[in-house]
Amino acid sequence: MKKILKNIKRCFSHFQAKLLAAFLLCTLIPLGIIGGISYSVSYGIARDRILSASMSSDEQLNMQINERLEQVENVADSLQYDMYALMQADTPMDSLSSLTDTRNDVSLFKATFRLFYASVFLPQDHLGAGEGLYFFPLTDLEKYALPVESLENPGTSSIWFYQEKVTVPVMISSVQNSRSCAACCRILKDTETQVIEYAYIIFLDVSDFSQYLEESFSDKNISSYIVTDQGQPIAHNSPDQPVDIDQEKLSDLAKEEGTLYQKDQVSYHTVRLQNGWYHITEIPDSYIRNNVYILVKTILITLLCSLPLTILVIIAISRSLTRKIRILSTAMKEFKLDAPGKEIQELISPAKDPDTYDEIDKLGLTFQKMQASLSSNMQSILDLSLTEERLKYQLLQSQINPHFLYNILGSIQTCQSLGKLDIANEMITNLTRFYRMTLRKSGDLITIRDELEIARLYLKIEKLCHNDNLSWEIDLEDGIENFLICKFTLQPFLENSILHGLSQRTPQVHIVITAVYGDDTVIITIADNGAGIGEKQLAEIRHTLDSKIVDYEKHFGIGNVNKRISNPYFGNGHISIDSRLYHGTKITIEFNQMEEENEESNDC
């Protein structure tokens, strides 16, 4: 007996044997005791997981549906600009051009965003009201199921409604089949007369929503559908299955929006969509029980089958696995970026075939490669960061040239229209000299001397348009013209001084440009005696300067220059502005003194 006990103790003197014995005792004995409890606990856990998985799928589906609705809203916003231009057209030619642009945009949006159709409704006397493809008279709005209260007070937001049997004209689609659609409508009323000026409707085939529902909930035991805010069903993951919902039931579900609502052995998950409709998912308790039974059975069988396999795996690989992890952990712990990495070649046997490497072997090799490449990659990352900053600068500067050229060409066209061909020719000549000068200076940084020459050419061009109403003077401290400045820094401010400075109360504008030395900086001021800037607009401009934003709709030139000149590589400068209404405006530009070393240093 003593010999048997001695042999048993000898066997269990190894850690692996102790681990195996402890695992068996802690697994097999409690398994028989808590067998009954396991079922109820597993049922609860499995039920929660099934509901959680269903809600997760539901949330992803809601995001997908809302993104689709957002696409339609964005299309409606884009069409708003076209409609504004169309209704503001003064002449038949302008109206015809706006109609063509709107029709092209509608066709483009329809193809790009997979829209079923779009209709634009115009007043009866409008040029495009009888077009019959995309444009129709306002009286045709009566054909659609728009809510009455929306027609009476449409507001500024979209009106969503469900429309059955929407048909596309033959010239747009040869397939003449009616579709049920989700319709997004925008209506504009005259604020005084309350008469509808125009309206447009974007139609989205509800089969898109049905497809989303079928893909997310392929199991027909789960019912997922979309209804309007009035309870009218429009899409279902099983189109043949009827939807049993009334206004009272919808009201109860809406109160529990976003949560699981249990009623009559069915779990409801209700979400209000972006357009005010509801997406409802019904998960019957019977479905949960069937899936939980399968899950519990599967877990028990898997545990019983995997237990002996687990024991064998622990015995076979625990020692080797622990050794590899310990070696790799030590190497990672001692790793330093500025010191050579520890060699971990002992992790992998030299005679081992690379095709037989396991994940830990590969992780060790990857760690070694990471050690070798991190130092060199740090410099590459720094170079990429510098390149990114330079590309951003070049993009901002490239936007100034088209903006400037557009304004000058507009002035030339105006002179030609007024018959002032000599002035137009002289402007073209000066414009040629202007661009010869700017193109000859290929760097992003040029001398203040060259920047002032560009400014003079621009002022000469503008003076041709304004005769004796424009004058200027330039005052520089000695030697300051040799420092470098970002190209096209002064022109946008000069343009604003002329464009916004001239008014009935300030018919003549005089511009004074000065450049003086600061503390290791250059300070350039542009002052005029023009119309000045109101307090509200001045606050907007100062906000643009402080936040360093470039808004393509407002203050583009000022924001562009401010963004470029504030770059640390191009002067680390800043711009301030002072102005009083009808007392002129003063722009102060301060940046670091930068000297020209060679031609390459000026190119980004």
Automatic annotation (TrEMBL):
Keywords: ATP-binding, Cell membrane, Kinase, Membrane, Nucleotide-binding, Phosphoprotein, Transferase, Transmembrane, Transmembrane helix, Two-component regulatory system. It is found in: Cell membrane. Coiled coil: none annotated. This is Histidine kinase. GO terms for cellular component: plasma membrane. The chain crosses the membrane at residues 292-317. It comes from Candidatus Blautia stercoripullorum. Residues 490-592 form the Histidine kinase/HSP90-like ATPase domain. Residues 392-469 form the Signal transduction histidine kinase internal region domain. It is a multi-pass membrane protein. The keyword Plastid does not apply. It holds the Pfam family HATPase_c. It comes from the Bacteria. GO terms for molecular function: ATP binding; phosphorelay sensor kinase activity. InterPro entries: Bact_2-comp_sensor_kinase, HATPase_C_sf, HATPase_dom, Sig_transdc_His_kin_internal.
